Amino acid sequence: MNERAEAERHDELARLRAELEHLRLLANTVPVAIAYYEAEGRTCRMANRRYAEMFGFDEQNIIGRTLEEIIGPEAAANIEPYRHRVIEQRTAAAYEREVRGADGITRIVEVRLLPHVQPDGESVGAFVLISDITHHRRAEAALRESEERLAKFMHASEEGIVFHKGGYITDVNPPLLNLLGYTMPEMLGRLTLEFIAPEAQQKVADVIAAAPETRYDSVALHKDGTRIPVEFIVRTMQHQGQTQRLTIVRDIRDRLAAEQRIQHLAHHDALTGLPNRAAFVERLERRMAEARASGESLALMFIDLDHFKRINDSLGHAVGDALLRTVAARITEALRMGDMVARFGGDEFLVLLAPRAGSSVVAEVAARLLAAVAEPMPASGVTISVTPSIGVALFPQDGATSSELIQHADQAMYRAKSGGRARMRFFEPGMAEATLAGLALESRLALAVRQDEFVLHFQPQVALARAGRGGATVLGVEALVRWAHPQRGLVQPDEFVPLAETRRLILPIGTWVLQQAIAAAVRWRAAGLGCGGEHERALPVAVNLSAVQFQTAGFVDMVAETLRAAGAEGSMLELEVPERALAAEPADVHDALARLRGMGVRITVDDFGTGTTPLARVKSLPLDRLKVDRGFVAGLPHDAGSVAIARAIVQMGHGLELQVVAEGVETPAQRDAVQAMGCDAMQGFLVARPMPEPELVDWLRRHAGSPPR
Ligand code: C2E
Ligand code: CA
Ligand code: CA
Fold first, then answer.
1. Which domains are present in the chain?
2. Which of 417, 480, 685 most suits a substitution to test ligand 1, by most atoms within 8 Å of the C-beta?
3. Tens digits of per-residue pLDDT, 233-265?
4. What is the 3 state secondary structure string of 509-552?
5. Which ligand 1 atom sits closest to the C-alpha of 607?
6. Is residue 664 within 6 Å of ligand 1 at its C-beta?
7. Ligand 1 within 6 A of 199 CB?
8. How many CA atoms lie within 13 A of 190 on its CB side?
9. How many of the other CB atoms lie within 10 Å of CB of 165?
């Protein structure tokens, strides 16, 4: 029996042990540190592993130790009020404190003290439950910090920020209030859509509904109704403990202005501010489509400045740029509403005239442009004048596409140049081939200079005043250059002289002409062909000069040397200077002319009336003769304008004691007209065409002493 009792007790003990083991397991598994302290002596009676280890003990050696021993005297003193309350008042207490654990890590813990009260009401001890709330507290602190950061950010941001929930505004920052002109109370609680321009509201509503994280451009409304282009950057965020939508509102008026500037730069020429080629072509095509639909016609002008390169090279790019700006302004000014102008590149401009009646209107505009551009302009101390050459192509007849139209206007411009510059030409079918031929010539011209492919023709000039009284008094002979092109035959100077001028090839050509002309005059003298009634004086030869030649340093010396080398006198030479060449530096021109005249060389102003030389300037120069441009003679005797101009030139020339020569006289009526006006001499097909030297010699022999036809 004893044995049995012994066995039962053993079993009972085993069961208790197992139960205890379970409790211990449980105590060690829960994420809480647990201990039990006796009220008497404050000694630890039980602790789970977590508790023991927290203070550097294990479950066994912690038993029987006092509170002071376990948590340290300082901490024990700190929690004394709680302990006291639990034991004396038998109520639970809870507090938070920081525990620096045996592992050296400081944790934030929440401590709960529960009184152990006997049925008789005596409190015999206290349970201690400690949970680690470090993580929790840190998260809270982080949240608090982030809220603070957000608040700071909202206030520091220069951009507007608005929080909203379900489209209702919950928070805004001062910059947004500034941007929209509202106060905080005026915005809070209102719908975001109330601050959006009507046409932008749908998009905003869609974004609010779909709640994506996105960015888009919109238009906000200022309190005063001003529309403000903005960019919205939308994010979902935690704010004030709730999931909210944060929208950054960025004022993009500056950005849009910058974009517009970039647009402008991309479409405009930086120098003149005019639209550039690309922008022009775009608009041209739009206008062409409109005109096609309405049946209206358009006129496209291609404007190129004459000799611009020379100005640019000699006076510098700054002057060239200033000139281009002035020209751009003048062209713009001369046009009307609806006309378009662009800088095509370099010294080229394009003008599209708004649909208007007839080519006479186009000619009128061209005349206005020619005059406006040619107006002298001051540039770094000097006054310069630049003429434009204008080519016109009409839509629809001259081209179906923008490029064709521009190309044809360009070709017409090219012809205006070769026609003597400073004029307008309409496009004509066939110009294309001529222009291509011109281009081919250009590359061939340099070779022609080296291969000496030029020949001179000569055209006589006769006196008019005495023409009625018997013999045709031959006064001189004009040398006119031709290019004996191996394939194309004789090429007229109008086709290659302007080209040669742009390439400065005119210098060697001009020198050659001068030498050959003087050599011919020397031959005629030797052959006894003179001028004047008795052929007592040597027949002078007139040589045409280009402005480039005339303005080249050493030109006068070259002439003197050529005369000397040929054994000719100065009186055997006449130089024809185009009126336009007189526009150069007054002092230089005057000096050169005076030296030439000093050698006995005669100076004639050629093509007089086509330039814009002021009368005072003509007066001041040492000259002998004026040649009325053949364009005016062509209009005689019926065109009133030509009559008036020709008469004025004659009177003016005589007033300056200059001889006046009429060139291009083709008909007896023209001869009579120029004679009646008082011209001193004439030249033209009526008298003789330009001819090779042997024919000229025949002609001189035959006509000396016989009356002109
Ligand atoms: P320009 O100096 O005005 O020369 C007169 C032009 O009128 C010549 O044309 C001549 O053939 C032409 N002509 C003469 N009589 C008549 C007429 O009754 N009716 C018409 N319709 N025309 C007439 P060309 O030979 O074709 O020369 C054209 C221009 O080329 C000249 O105009 C001149 O500016 C230039 N040129 C000719 N030779 C030279 C030269 O050696 N050097 C330079 N720099 N230029 C030259
Ligand atoms: Ca001439
Ligand atoms: Ca002439």
1. 12-132 (3.30.450.20), 138-256 (3.30.450.20), 273-427 (3.30.70.270), 442-703 (3.20.20.450)
2. 480
3. 999 887 777 888 889 999 988 878 877 777 777
4. HHHHHHHHHHHHHHHHHHCCCEECCCCCEECCEEEECCHHHHCC
5. 3
6. yes
7. no
8. 13
9. 14
